[in-house]
Amino acid sequence: MAGGRIRARIRRSHLYTFSCLRPSATEEGPHSIEGPGYSRIVHCNQPLMHKKKPLNYRSNYISTTKYNFLTFLPKALYEQFHRVANLYFLGAAIISVTPLSPFSAVSMIAPLAFVVGLSMAKEALEDWRRFMQDMKVNTRKVNVHKEEGIFGNKSWQKVQVGDVVKVEKDQFFPADLLLLSSSYEDGICYVETMNLDGETNLKVKRALEVTLPLDDDEAFKNFTGTIKCEDPNPSLYTFVGNLEYERQLYPLDPSQILLRDSKLRNTAFVYGVVIFTGHDSKVMQNATKSPSKRSRIERKMDYIIYVLFSFLLVISLISSIGFAVKTKFYMPDWWYLQPQSTDDYYNPEKPVVSGVTHLVTALMLYGYLIPISLYVSIEVVKVLQATFINQDIQMYDEETGNPAQARTSNLNEELGQVDTILSDKTGTLTCNQMDFLKCSIAGTAYGVRSSEVELAAAQQMAIDLEDQDVERSTVSRQKGKQQEIELETVVTSKDEKNYKSPIKGFSFEDSRIMKGNWLKEPKADVIKLFFRILAICHTAIPELNEETSSYTYEAESPDEGAFLVAAREFGFEFFKRTQSSVFIHERYSSSGQPIEREFKILNMLEFTSKRKRMTVIVRDEDGQILLLCKGADSIIFDRLSKNGKMYEEDTTRHLNEYGEAGLRTLALAYRKLEESEYSAWNNEFQKAKTSIGADREAMLEKVADMMERELILIGATAVEDKLQKGVPQCIDKLAQAGLKIWVLTGDKMETAINIGYACSLLRQGMKQICITAISSDAKEVVKENILMQITNASQMIKLEKDPHAAFALIIDGKTLAYALGDDMKQQFLGLAVDCASVICCRVSPKQKALVTRLVKEGTGKTTLAIGDGANDVGMIQEADIGVGISGVEGMQAVMASDFSVAQFRFLERLLVVHGHWCYKRIAQMVCYFFYKNIAFGLTLFYFEAFTGFSGQSVYDDWYMLLFNVVLTSLPVISLGVFEQDVSSEVCLQFPALYQQGPRNLFFDWYRILGWMGNGLYSSLIIFFLNIIIFYDQAFRAGGQTADMAALGTTMFTCIIWALNCQIALTMSHFTWIQHLFIWGSIVTWYLFLFIYGMVSPTISGNAYQILVEALAPAPIYWSATLLVTVACNLPYMAHISFQRCFHPLDHHIIQEIKYYRKDVEDQRMWSRERSKARQKTKIGFTARVDAKIRQLRGRLQRKQPSLETHSPMSPS
């Protein structure tokens, strides 16, 4: 490509002062590579040598799966028998092959095998998907040196240590490489590390001087060398090693290392030699093993099973003791049982043996208390819930074609219990696009378009003002608009709201300085210099777009790109860069003709996070030397000369306004230099640049600081950081739902703070607590200082009396390393929890995972981590729920996640709608399951006690088999799949409803025990009412009394009616499916009874013709069914009626409003209820708008007295 060839001639290293210092071997000796941790030896271009011992390095194959072919069976079985109920049924299945079993072996083993097999098949399917994603990465192609200077394609998984690879522009690096050369003649290349640290700013990497000649395929024909370096480790920012090449030893440092999963940018190609492969690479060293996650409800279910198992043990002990007593004292009198010739199980002389053996029988007989079908029903429900999530059209992204995806269905209900969200920044909250929106030049503000924050504030103010009907307020409002509030910069027309900038990176609008009109402005010279700074002060490369004939820019940061696009649109187009100059095409000039101007670059002092500014020193065509500087306003204002503060007051006011509007700001300044002054400084600068020693960087900084003084302020820029669509609104809704949001990013602190403002996690007036580590070699001193900062900050929050005060905690990775130590992490967590928002910047992937673990374990609440890159995998796996963004950058985050969405904004619906629904559905379903099994299981115990603890079941075996499988399974599944307390629209309108999940209102012990108590009550009613009704009186017209078959069938009919009516009362939302399943189950029971009764007596036994001949003609059968059903459900109806009348929950009130259509008939009341249904929050759009409104009202109140004072003086 022509552009590539032009760039290749530029020695880019000359542009950089701080990033690209290349010490030669003579300046800085080789590293001492000795001792443990430094044993790796790499033979360059000789990969086969590493297959032999003792080297035998790992392959480049990677795997993120939980299982492999060998481990699947043992690990998956272990996962399944982690569940207490499955363990119990495994024991029961083993015992079922003995004579002690009251059931056949098949009837015990088959259900267990079905449940476990289904769950294992689901696990296998989910892991297979992970395997296929891994294979996509492993089968990517890269150019590898084969032999004799010939390169050929090879899949990533076959790349070996020592291979020489050629990576081309926009490709990912397949392994950790040592950079040998690039398409630039001085070995510079640009790398995007977004997958590693989340940063979009391009990093400059440089090859050693000695390997620069290796710049084409032929050069590697006879290339050899040896690298001795550190062993594999997770540190992304360090590397220690030496290269032995042509009998010389050269030191290596991180600036020569290209890490796996980072991407080559702005560089045609690079050559590199592979150092670390596969799981030895630094990005994979930062990865953690895919954990097995279980939801809180599922973990709590284990405790409920323990309770039920204890209960089962107690009643089984009672039964066995009763049986032993009966055997010893009563069996000898029962001559018809022939006690003298019985076996040990029924031997009156061995009652203890009889009791123990009966204990085993009882444990199996009452096994219906432990619901084996619960797990398989939950699996079915969760899969169907996951299908609804996958099919939700509201979470489908049309741009990418990606739907939401529940990659595992184990955690659906956990989505409804999230307390803290830990989010990545780049690619998750942002889409890495900046838009130039406003600027302040020579004390005048330009740019009439409004930011998203201003639009929201204006909209809310308009709503508030409509509610005020007092005439004086109206007058004040009108005057206030004109004089004080200046709403014309806030309120925009509908056309403007819907306007979309056709120019990427430029949303500016102001006719005063567009299309050359700036020439008519009073301070045109200052405006021209402002635009020139935008066009000159950068490190970007222009590329001509042949289709549009305009230039695009490959810049190191999105901000820089936006400035260049803005300069181009203002008529100052940067179109060419040479080694020593930049060329600007100025479209508008005083002569009226376009002019091409050349500015010679004398020095460039680039932006670093420490300096917070960038400076270029140029010579214009008139020979004048100019220092042009852009940077953070706090830094620039400190460096202004006395004469340079002319516009400081106005610019400061504008900067504050821009900050309130959520915009990123930079101040611009300049200085004219005399030739002699510059020459003297440049001599000092060159001395510092070529000095040898550890203090070289400090000397350079000092010399640069000397020149960047006595500046003259010109103005400021305001750039809107283009967040992903809907991010501020989503964060606002999540905040209203009571969720806490932390941002964990590898980006620098300034960028993270700006993003915090853009998405309303931070706002003007919020008190920022910045915890930073002091520079000291003594670790104890640093630790003490950080601990003191944390303690002081915690104390400050406690002493704060302003109810509207909000605190934000900002901490960097270096400080976090100390804060996460065992002796400090609880204090750090305590401070973080007290803050409204937390931003951790410059954090490594490992630290992201550690912070997530701290929040998860320290608070004991549910955490959700969301990210889009490989650097987020650790925290995604560590969190209770991991959500991956299926965006542009790779699929590593999605592969490691539990759920994936195409954009951050879909998280709102995933949690507030699906999370809320899934939590309530699963909670109600599990509670109902225990209720129905207790109600059914205890009737078996009562009957056995009633019949001398004989082990006799009152129900036919077929009834018991059908109870869980057919007659009560579908209604409970429909509850778990279709139940909605409120609609999805209402969930989003009333976000506070979400708090029912984190507060666990529907699955606390009070509710669980309440349902168990309901089951106990129902079992007593079902058994004893039927016994009372049928015991003494005739139940048929012929005077016959009921036998065991008639009693058992009637009791079972009552159970089916009572349980299905109970679930109907529990549901709030009915579709035809629920009606079909509930009433269909009852009909199915009668159909079964009819058909079963028609079958031969050899199969149906005592149930032969039982419905047609015995029960159906007997009125007492129907009246008993009605009486028992009503009696069973009466307490629940009374409870729910009392609750709705006197202690209604939020959703009860909403249901009533919707039922009486008050939301349609009384819109004001509906709006009032909606505003009340917000959790009080100090972050998000709403909190920011509230703060803005408080500020505007304050101004209005201050203006009010003056309006009242002047009104009598106005002419009448």
From TrEMBL:
Belongs to the cation transport ATPase (P-type) (TC 3.A.3) family. Type IV subfamily. GO terms for molecular function: ATP binding; ATP hydrolysis activity; ATPase-coupled intramembrane lipid transporter activity; magnesium ion binding. The chain crosses the membrane at residues 303-325, 356-376, 929-946, 958-978, 1008-1031, 1043-1064, 1076-1095, 1115-1134. InterPro entries: ATPase_P-typ_cyto_dom_N (IPR023299), ATPase_P-typ_P_site (IPR018303), ATPase_P-typ_TM_dom_sf (IPR023298), ATPase_P-typ_transduc_dom_A_sf (IPR008250), HAD-like_sf (IPR036412), HAD_sf (IPR023214), P-type_ATPase_IV (IPR006539), P-type_ATPase_N (IPR032631). Its cofactor is Mg(2+). The keyword Transmembrane applies. It is found in: Membrane. This is Phospholipid-transporting ATPase. One of its GO terms (biological process) is phospholipid translocation. Gene3D superfamilies: Calcium-transporting ATPase, cytoplasmic domain N (3.40.1110.10), Calcium-transporting ATPase, cytoplasmic transduction domain A (2.70.150.10), HAD superfamily/HAD-like (3.40.50.1000). Residues 42-109 form the P-type ATPase N-terminal domain. It is a multi-pass membrane protein. Residues 894-1144 form the P-type ATPase C-terminal domain. Its main location: membrane. One of its GO terms (cellular component) is plasma membrane. SUPFAM superfamilies: Calcium ATPase, transduction domain A, Calcium ATPase, transmembrane domain M, HAD-like, Metal cation-transporting ATPase, ATP-binding domain N.
